Amino acid sequence: MLEYQAAKDALKGKTILVTGAGDGIGKVAAMTYAAHGATVILLGKTVRKLEAVYDAIEAAGYPTPAIIPLDLKGATEQNYIDMAETIEEQFGHLDGVLHNASLLGVLGPWEHMSQSSLDEVMKVNLTAPAIMTKALLKVLRKAPKASILFTSSGVGRQGRAYWGPYALSKFATEGMMQVLAHECEGTSVRVNSINPGATRTKMRANAYPAEDPMTLKTAEDLMPTYLYLMSDDSEQENGKAFNAQ
Ligand code: NDP
């Protein structure tokens, strides 16, 4: 676990987009970024959950966030282009994006894999962040320093039986991070990936129903690495695969 202590105002003045901000790790990351001074843009598919995070941020007296309701399963390139334009109009630039939303899909042996489940997982976990990032690059380049953070997984770095579509999407996420980081070398934009590791969330409980969640780290435990990678303290980091645990 990274021994990093972010200054209270480490993200002051920054605008950071978090996908899947209504639940799990994304929700805690959005709250944590706001607590460190960022204006967070909360993107997710369940509006009620996004509104609850919005209200919690307001109640805590952190900078007023924004909400983008979007289901990545059905999102089109035009949705991302419109979103990027709105962000540019409202904030002028974007300092960071945490690509966190993901779908676990169906776990099981390869011969039981359904193409529709594979397509769905690849759309949400890979195509959506790829095309969203394409649309956002212009507004990210308007920030003095910008951080793009893709969320990976242990099974995106070492294959594991029965994790088919999800593992494929996470291996490809690591590849996307490396390609884009190489393209961004020497620019104001940096690109890295983060593997949260086993964390007490709904997704983990779905993948390991027999596990005692109390034995797991919480999303809050991971936040030093999530903060480090969004703050200017990580401005030298590019093209690296980080572990939050
Ligand atoms: P959760 O399932 O708890 O949360 C996932 C979030 O993504 C939810 O806010 C969900 O929204 C959102 N989301 C899912 N599908 C879509 C969609 N189609 N469009 C928009 N938003 C969507 O997952 P975690 O917090 O556990 O996971 C966060 C990230 O960390 C993921 O990328 C995951 O792969 C990764 N990870 C997690 C690990 C763990 O142990 N928890 C381990 C390794 C990696 P809604 O609630 O509205 O459905």
Protein described:
The chain is of the alpha/beta class. It has one domain (15-106, 113-243): Rossmann fold. The protein is built from seven helices and seven strands. Strand 1, helix 1 (24-35) and strand 2 (39-44) form a beta-alpha-beta unit. Helix 1 packs parallel to helix 2, helix 3 packs parallel to helix 4 (115-141) and helix 4 (115-141) packs parallel to helix 5. The model has no long low-confidence stretch (mean pLDDT 97). It comes from Shewanella sedimentimangrovi. It holds the Pfam family adh_short. Belongs to the short-chain dehydrogenases/reductases (SDR) family.
Summarize the structure.
This is YciK family oxidoreductase. By secondary structure, this protein is α/β, with parallel strands linked by helices. It contains seven helices and seven strands, in the order E-H-E-H-E-H-E-H-E-H-E-H-H-E.
CATH topology: Rossmann fold
Please write the CATH class name: Alpha Beta
Terminal-residue CA separation:
4 Å
Low-pLDDT stretches are: none
Outline type? globular
Mean pLDDT figure? 97
Query: How would you write the strand order of the largest sheet?
Result: 3-2-1-4-5-6-7
Total strand segments: 7
Provide the succession of SSEs: EHEHEHEHEHEHHE
Query: How many individual domains?
Result: 1
Assess the beta-strand content as a share of residues: 5-15%
Label the structural class. alpha/beta
Which ligands does the model contain, each kind named once?
NADPH dihydro-nicotinamide-adenine-dinucleotide phosphate
The percent range for helix content is 40-55%
Going by CATH, what is the homologous superfamily? NAD(P)-binding Rossmann-like Domain
Largest sheet: 7 strands, parallel
Based on CA atoms alone, the radius of gyration comes out at: 17 Å
Named at the architecture level, the CATH assignment is: 3-Layer(aba) Sandwich
Q: Count of DSSP helices?
A: 7
